[in-house]
Amino acid sequence: MPIFGIDFAQNFGLNLVNKDASVHDRLHELTTELANREAETIQLRYQLEEAQKQLLNQTWGMDRCKSDLLSSHHDSEGVKERLKGVENDRNYHRKDSNEDAYRKERGNENGELYPCPNCEKFERSIDALNRKVRELEEELATVKRERDKLEEEGNSWEVEREQEIKIMQQTLADAQREKEELRKRFEKEFESLRTVNTDREQHLLDDFEWKLREVEQASKKRLQAREEAVRNQCLDQQIQLKDQIQELQTKIKLHHSHEAELSQLRGLSNEQQRSLKVATRQVEQLQNSEKLLKEEIDKLKSLLQKEKTHLATMQGIHNREIAEKERKFQFKLDQYKTEVNSQVDEKVQRECARLRIELERNYKEERRANVEAAKQEMEKEFHLKKQNWDRRMQECIQELELLQKKLANKDKEYKQELEKIQTMSDRDMMELRRKLDKTEMSYQEKLEKVQEKCDKEIERINCEREKRLSEREEEVRSVRAELEELESSRAEELEERLAESRAKFEEQLREQREELLREREEALAAAEQRHGVAIDNLRNQLDSIYRSRRHTDSPQQDSLMRLHQELSITSESSTTDEGCIRGMVQASDDEFSCLQSQEEEDQVAPLPQQVETNKSKWKDKKFSAAEEGCIRDCAALQSSHLPRFRDDDVREDDVSSALLSAILYAQLDENRERTGNTQVLQTRSSRRKRRSRGQRGRMNLNSNFAPA
């Protein structure tokens, strides 16, 4: 009996150790199974992805096969058409060959041999066509074989694809079930974590409302400032325009006869137009400011949209955080379970070790005593230990049950809390949505009111601007009518004055021309008389010299001939001088006629300018050789001042010098007369200058006031 009790205790301890080891092994197996299941799920996902890729590749291969089949079908149809064409050609050539054969037979029967040069060509073409037909038939056979192969491959591909589709559908159904389970679990977690984001959303909404209020206040202030500035500018422009109109009216009444005031009026009208343009630009600026405000509102809307997207992203982040926390919580629960199990196992092992030690000690102590007493005691102790062990096992089981109940209660509490949090979050979301709707409605109403105000103000400003523009246009029209009346009256007055001045000027020109013609005739008569007297004197002197010196030698005759030549030259010079004078007079007549024509064309031309042009013409005029010689001789006579020759004590040298001096003095007298005539002309031109100054000033004024 004692041996049996000791063996039983040892066996019981060994059984407990084995149970503990089996429990540990079971836990390890379960963990390995979980890891294997997770690895299998990952592998299944990879397999699903690979199967999808294979499906895509197979569909692509099927499409390729279909396209190849279609192309082969088209090729076969083309080959068939070619075969039909070849058969038609062959039939045609057969008919031709039959006809030729029939002709040959008929020729042979009739005893006549008709030469057929095209028979060989037809035979060759028939052979070539037969070869082509064979080749095409072979190609058609190969195409049919390829088509059959492709159809078989396509059927096999379809069967494999159907099998793979079934497998994929099964795997997809499993994955969808797992996905539904995960979705339900994550929805629960999301509902539990909605309350975390409510405070933050409320804070963000408050910040956004505050920003919206600030922007609205700033926009209102800007609009009010712009409206006040525009009103002030319009009032200032009205006052300035009224003052300018009054000034213009006073200036028009006071200064009707001055061109400067007309230019001032034009400048003022231009300034008015500029001011109107400035007003239109200001209106355009207001419109641009309205556009900018609208753009700011759009920007605010875009910011609101961005905030909404930010909230959505934050919700996603919170969902991920909730999932991470749940995973950590589950991991902690698993750790807690493993720790509890390990603690229970350790307690059982410690109790078993303690019992072993006590049993061994009792066995050693009671071994010395009696076997029966030891056996009884051991049995009693064994029963007691067994009871204690059973009680402890029951306590451990009760503790485990209590822990499980606590866990279940905690799960229920967590679920209830999550449901409460979800309801609270839903209620808060509804309130927030209601507030958002209210704020959007109020903001929309405010925007509509502001838009209506802006539209009304714009309409009012446009009406005022149109009224002002119409008033200004009427004023400008009245001013233009007055100016046109003034210009018409001024043009009539100018035409009358011009007609009077033209008549006066024509009369003065006629008188001056008559005076010039009379003076020209007088000067020509005086010059002819002087030249005649001088020539007579020279001829008398020459005759006397010729009579006194008749017995002189040939040199003197030569000198006399030279003197005759000089006389002829002087006579020619006198004639040339007369021609010059007449040319000058004719030039003066031409100039006066040109002046008259220019005055008629240009209404009234200033005489000083004509005098200057005449001077420049006389300066730039090219004289003839005789005229240049006369001018040169006059200059020499004025420089030398030679004395006159006397009749007594005449010598050969003195004769030539006397003749030359007489000729030169005659030319000098003529030049003096010419200078006198030019002085007379200058005095008369100066008189004309004095007379025409007043007329020129009047004409300049009239030309300035003349209409454009």
TrEMBL record:
Keywords carried by this UniProt record = Coiled coil
**Key word Ribosomal protein present in the record?**
no
Entry keyword annotation includes Zinc? no
Composition-biased stretches, type Basic and acidic residues, lie in 71-109
Q: Which parts of this chain are annotated as the region Disordered?
A: 71-110, 674-708
Q: Which residues form the signal peptide?
A: none
Superkingdom in the source lineage: Eukaryota
Report biased composition (Basic residues) as residue ranges: 685-696
Q: Coiled-coil stretches, from where to where?
A: 119-192, 231-310, 356-530
Name of protein = Uncharacterized protein
